[in-house]
Amino acid sequence: MKNYELLTIYSGALKEDELAAAIKEAKDLLKKHGGSITMEANWGRIKMAYEIKKQTHGTYLVWRLTMDPAHTNAFAGELQVADHVIRFLLSEQPANEFPITVPLMTDEREDAKKALEKGQPVDNSKKAGTGSKTPAPEKKKTLDDILEEKI
User: Fold this and answer.
1) What are the residue boundaries of the structural domains of the chain, listed by start?
2) Between 72-80 and 16-32, two packed helices, what is the crossing angle to 10 degrees?
3) How many alpha carbons lie under 13 Å from residue 49 in its C-beta half-sphere?
4) How far is CA 130 from the centre of its chain?
5) 71-114: pLDDT as tens digits
6) Domain 2-92, what architecture?
7) Please, which contacts does 54-57 make with residues 24 or more away whose CB atoms are closer than 8 Å?
8) 52 near 87, Cβ under 8 Å?
9) What pLDDT was estimated at residue 120?
10) Whole-angstrom distance, CA of residue 125 vs CA of residue 11
């Protein structure tokens, strides 16, 4: 058994019950091939950088899983022809570390959703990286400064 990370993008047009059914199908498919999920992260519905299969939004799911390497090709082949899966990436993870990535500004996105549900205005002033403790002038180096540094 090896460790894997699976990023799956489901169609953004799916309703909650349809998405739940599609996820259940993928879980059943994984169990059929002898795999098991050790962690699941739902990133939610996100606008994609470019259109895929005439879709502009997708629901991103990340799973940590364990599976026998002999079954990964069969699993990936069946996942590729699944109706509601737009794209997926199955990557092997090193045995000693098992990272899971989280999109930037997850908390801000959740806060914005809650504010919109309550009819409150959304604060868009927060930008990634502005919470740094290092002052901006120390971060920036000009090309001349870099070239003048001794190696």
Assistant:
1) 2-92
2) 150
3) 0
4) 23
5) 999 999 998 888 889 999 999 887 655 454 444 445 666 666 67
6) 2-Layer Sandwich (3.30)
7) 55/11, 55/12, 55/13, 55/86, 56/12, 57/12, 57/13
8) yes
9) 65
10) 30
pTM of the model: 0.62
Q: Strand, helix or coil at 130?
A: coil
Count of other CB atoms within 10 angstroms of residue 63: 23
Residue 43 tokens read as 């990133």
Q: Pull the structure tokens for residue 35.
A: 């795999």
Task: Catalogue the long-range contacts made by 38-41 (C-beta closer than 8 Å, 24 or more residues apart).
Answer: 38/3, 38/64, 38/65, 38/66, 38/98, 39/63, 39/64, 39/100, 40/64, 41/100, 41/102
Report the distance separating Cα 125 and Cα 130, nearest Å: 10
Mean pLDDT of the chain: 78
For residue 90, which amino acid is it?
L
DSSP code per residue over 49-115? EEEETTEEEEEEEEEEEEE-GGGHHHHHHHHHT-TTEEEEEEEE--SS-------TTHHHHHHHHHH
